[in-house]
Amino acid sequence: MDNLRNKIMGITLATTVALGSLSIGSMMNSEEAKAEPKTTGKEPVNVIMMVMDGTSSTATTLTRWYKGSPLAMDQIVSGGVRTYSAESAITDSAPAGTALATGNKSNSGYVGVLPSVVNSPGLDPIKEEDKFRPVANVLEGAERTGRATGIIATSEIQHATPAGFSAHHANRNNFDVLGEQQVYQNMEVVLGGGKASLLPTSSNGTRKDNEDLVKVIQEKGYDFVETKDALLNSKSDKIWGSFSNAALAYDIDREATNPEQPTLAQMTDKAINTLSKDKDGFFLFVEGSKPDWAAHSNDAIGIISDVLAFDAAVAEALEFAKKDGNTMVIALTDHGNSGISIGNSNTTKGYDTTPVSAYIDPLKEAKMSLEGATSKLKDDLSNIEEVAALYGLDNLTADEKEKLHAAKKKADVGPILVKLLANRANLGFTTGGHTGEDVFLYSYGPERPFGLVQNTDIANTMAEAMGFDLKDLTNELFAEAGSAFKKIGADVTIDKTDAANPVLVVKHNKAEAQLFVNKNIIRINGKDYELGSVVVESNGKFYVPEKAVQLFKKYSR
Fold first, then answer.
1. Interhelix angle 300-324/410-425, nearest 10 degrees
2. Are 33 and 453 in contact (CB under 8 A)?
3. Listing from the earlier edge strand, what are the strands of the sheet with 521-524?
4. Neighbouring-strand partners of residue 494
5. Measured between alpha carbons, how far is 245 from 222 in angstroms, rounded to an integer?
6. What is the DSSP string of 334-402?
7. Is the pLDDT at 28 greater than 90, yes or no?
8. What is the DSSP letter of 53?
9. Which residues pair with 327 in a beta bridge?
10. CB–CB of 373/417 below 8 Å?
């Protein structure tokens, strides 16, 4: 990439709202993210941002006991993170990702846009005109400084957290919109699942707009890879890896069920090696997505499996950062999940003399996650005991057999298995949902954050390290189209002939332009120009980069 770096100094880390100032950030008396002195190195700062989704602190403790040795993350513990959203003490992944990526707290389901409801203590109210407005993320900022960028996830790449770093929409479940925006963000590396969301229904995909984004990706010059070997052997500077129609397998299951899929550590290593070729530096987002999914199911094996896989990816990032000397690594979880506890009603008496082995040995018997084990279940449940054994429940007692065989259908089996294993391992779960506790912060390298910080402070710390201000960038990338073009005397209408792909039509004098929603293109008098950022529709309003207005003004004279 060309060296576009244009450093803007003076960012405030603990922000308050007034959305002329565009920041639903921290509490008015917020903890400030602390940073080490700026690097004196001559090379640009690289940033690797890593999220293990939905991982309570007990989950990492249990994983460490299971592993039997320290985690890579242990060496860089540096503080804590407050995770609440604009509307709740317990956040959804979409506003959590939005906070980490944009420096703004938001609402459940909202990806990369401002909230419509603000009721958490200490936050200023949202202005009516700012509700649902898209806000710039650190990946978009990194792109504009000339850095190479990439995202990785073990879920669908369009899922809430990776989308929070690469797209903007008020519905986290609209993979059609989120996926299309990602394709037009000009990232250099995209690795994960979600191939179905790139293809039309006519090609065994799920896209209702009939666009074939795999074809677009290939036309944009990416090496489109679908297996571990193809990824590791790729020599391209632009790689899009789509290794599953949906999510990737749990790491513990991968060799048995999907050996062609890469590990999270392999994807991280390949991305770093590819992005670090850029002389201007890079930004990389990495998510271990499925500790959260396992926690929702109260599946201790799935949790441990993918925390270990995430930790191996952290080890890859740290190895590079320590050699490079000018790379910031941040690792954390976006929120807790499941209320997992080491200790349950079995240990109410005698908890202080119960050995570690009483918790860990039963877990070591499992060969697969809950997802992996139950995938082997026959429709008539005739192999239910064999499936239980895969999940570590061999040598069933009479009571365990009775509970297991109470299952009447496939959907009944999973909840029974997790309860039986939790009882054997003396583990507790309070919920199948998220939890609202503060979480650990792990960080390394120049300008790293430390101390007790807001999730919004993480975004601002990264932005400052890379030399831009997120509020200024929001104003540059997301101008409300109607008012922005009106200022230059142009008229804007919306062509909804294709309801799935609305087009903004701008007219002034004899000039006419079309802007395509979820793409980074403006077509002026029949000629296409790239905008550097995507056109976004949010709650009935359309937002365009200022560059679109400038280009139209130039060519409409």
1. 70
2. yes
3. 491-495, 503-508, 511-516, 521-524, 527-530
4. 504
5. 18
6. SSEETT-EE--GGGTTTGGG--THHHHHHHHT--S-HHHHHTT--TT-TTHHHHHHHTT--S--HHHHH
7. no
8. T
9. 46
10. yes
Give residue-wise pLDDT tens across range 377-433: 999 999 999 999 999 999 999 999 999 999 999 999 999 999 999 999 999 999 999
Angle at 173 between CA 171 and CA 174, to 5 degrees: 75
How far apart CA 462 and CA 50 sit, in angstroms, is 12
User: Cβ(47)–Cβ(328) under 8 Å?
Assistant: yes
pTM of this structure: 0.94
CB 156 within 8 A of CB 194: yes
What 3-state DSSP class applies to 495? strand
Query: Where on the phi/psi map is residue 397: left (φ > 0), alpha (ψ -120 to 50), or beta?
Result: beta
Instruction: Answer whether 478's CB lies under 8 Å from 462's CB.
Output: no
The answer to whether 289 and 158 have CB atoms below 8 angstroms apart is no
Count of all residues that appear for the chain in the document = 557
Cβ-contact 309, 287 below 8 angstroms: no
Tokens of 517: 């929603």
| Reduced DSSP (H G I as helix, E B as strand, rest coil) percent helix, strand, coil of the chain, to 5 | 35, 20, 45
Strand pairing class (46-52; 434-435): unpaired
Residues 6+ apart with CB under 8 A from 42: none
251 pLDDT above the threshold of 80: yes
Which residue(s) pair with 480 in the sheet? 543
pLDDT tens for each residue of 300-326: 999 999 999 999 999 999 999 999 999
Q: Which residue(s) pair with 428 in the sheet?
A: 341
Distance CA 150, CA 49 (A): 10
Work out the end-to-end distance of the chain between its first and last CA atoms, rounded to an integer number of angstroms.
Answer: 31
Nearest to 81 by CA among 449, 470, 329: 449
d(CA 139, CA 271): 15
Q: Alpha-carbon distance 160 to 275, whole Å? A: 23
Q: For position 319, what pLDDT does the model report?
A: 98
List 530's β-bridge partners, or say none. Answer: 521
Distance CA 426, CA 346 (A): 6
Q: How many CB atoms lie within 10 A of CB 242?
A: 23
CA atoms within 13 A on the CB side of 116: 10
Round to whole Å and give the CA distance between 57 and 62.
Answer: 9
